[in-house]
Amino acid sequence: MRGDAALPRTADVVIIGGGPAGSAAALTLARAGVAVVLLDAGRPRLAVGETLPPASKPALQALGLWSAMAGEGHLPSVGSWSAWGGAEPWGRDFLFNRFGHGWHLDRRRFDALLRAAARAAGARIAPSAAVFASDALTAGGFRLRLSAGRQIDARIVLDAGGRHANFARQRGVRRHAVDRMVALVGYVARRADAEAEPAATLVEAVPDGWWYSAPLPQDRLATVFMTDADLANGGARMTSWFNRLAAAEHTAARALRYGAGLAGPPSVVPAVSGRLERFGDAAWLALGDAAATQDPLSSEGILVAIESGIDAAAAVVRTLDGERDALLAAADRREAAWRSYLDQCASNYALEQRWPEAPFWQRRTRQDERRSVA
What we know:
By secondary structure, this protein is α+β, with helices and mostly antiparallel strands. Helix content is 33%, strand content 28%. The strands form four sheets. Strands 5, 6, 13, 14, 15, 16, 17 and 18 form an eight-stranded mixed β-sheet that branches. Strands 1, 2, 8, 9, 10, 11 and 20 form a seven-stranded mixed β-sheet that branches.
């Protein structure tokens, strides 16, 4: 912690999770003068080659971090292209976007930047601090129990602990999945003689899913196949992964231009869209992936997380100022955002009509079914 020797016994606000949602909330609260503790379990995560769209600029500016991005080694993203709904790629160049370019992230450096900014603003950050149990206190708030007998009492808890949402589950809140998506992730190492690959995302639909590719700052090309878990037979085997890649004309050509092979064996990563049955109450709120995970096709997961952190922090300030329903109102806004996301997701998948009999695409047309399990 900052002077980071001991966990305080009490805090106005405790945030669980040191990813973009939790760090954005901690930074915003600390700048508002709120005593906030961020519990960062520090569990390693596989960074799958995420991007920030140009629309992230206002949120990063609000956090005071936009100007710092250029010095962090991220790649400016110049556009986004899709072979979706037809065989040939189409898309947009960010040259004329009113926000300018986006970013292909070195995700570990980006998360570290957010945490460092929160610490510098006055947030107390507890590393290796995982919450294994929590209790509601009679007088209000919660007691969070950590390892080695440590505990901390909080008036308000923000659960930004990722898709596991352990604190919300400890409150008896269930999580519902709306699909069974997984990501088969391979990183292509760049050849020394390879020409510079345009720093743009490419999405390519195929009969049993879709491919995403984007260059990363570490001289790697993230090359990711999205499909349903029951359709991913042999997905973690290199031969299976390469056979799938060979069937994706544009993605395979890009990988061949960029490198000679994978930097290591492919990984299978959960990519399920899902949500908590409720997002909070008057004393706690779920943020980012803890609240809901979106289909990677939206390309807005990190931006949504940051914006939810900023919005939650504003609701916490109003709560501490005596507005009893401020966190409930924030939960209602997250509910409206989820419904809007489902509508947009349905529209995106409806653009692809080439394989109506394929199970992957049939499932994406059943939006009434998706809503019923949401």
